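Our preliminary data section would be incomplete without showing what the modeling component actually yields. Below, a chain of 319 amino acids is followed by its predicted structure, encoded as tokens that our downstream tools consume directly.
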Amino acid sequence: MTNLRPLVVIAGPTAVGKSEIAAELGRRIGGEVVSADSMQVYRYMDIGSAKVTREEMLGVPHHMIDVVDPMEEMDAARYAQMAKTVIRDIQDRGKIPILCGGTGFYIQAVTRDISFGDLAAPDKALRQELLTYAKTYGNEALHRRLQEADPVAAGEIHPNNVKRTIRALEYLSETGGKISDHNQKERERTSPYDLAYFVINDDRAKLYRRIEERVDFMIKEGLVDEVAYLKAMGLTRHQTSMQGIGYKEILDVLDGTCSLAEAVAILKRDSRHYAKRQITWFKREPDAIWLRRGDYGNDPLAMTKAIEEILRKRKIIHG
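Predicted structure:
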């Protein structure tokens, strides 16, 4: 028996079906879902983030969705502070929080109670120098600098995620150490929760097909109009929110630098690559229980029941 309070995690790569399982699990066990998606935190960014709809929530309360405007900055430290407050409130009401998403660092910041206090305040001059470098030579050139200095960190950060690339280079300059080593130490911290960590996965070919179908659905649902609306609000590719997959590609279409067909092909490719990086990240989670969709006949309800049974055996739920 443990005195720690429970936290269930439903993680996995993009388009694998996490949200459906988390909502059904919440409905079955009386839990509440806490989104761990770095894009769903933003208001007005619904289609490109595949934001869960009211119908898909199945009447289960969902948190950490639409909590900041896209002009605002959101990072793992701020997310963790907000999410942990929500989780405590859910637990205080006698409910089980279900942390659901694919942003591995956001999940880790919560489940390992990561301390961000040892990360020094950024050197403004260095940050400006790195930003200027990216604007002058391109995001990939900046990312190559990180690849040379910290290949592990570079493998976890997309070249277009300039903010995280810069933060990793800043950490190297500030401490002389690699941020990947820092992250590994944080990953090894003991969780402050009675943690049940599930990773949903699928055969690669099936997952990639789901990703491509999702991209086609986003375009059909009006992703171009959504990005045009955000652009009209004054958002540019320099905002963190607009660097997300799906938004920067459509911005290129609106700016006339590529066709819609080209953007869709890039979006599908980058989403596949992102899914691969997510799987690599979750493989490093020592407590993770992996569930493959094919082992359950591709039936989300069967997977949910399997998770429920594990939670019952773990005494996280009763009855």
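The chain is about 50% helix and 10% strand. Residues 260-282 form the longest helix (23 residues). Preliminary results of this kind motivate Aim 1 of the renewal.
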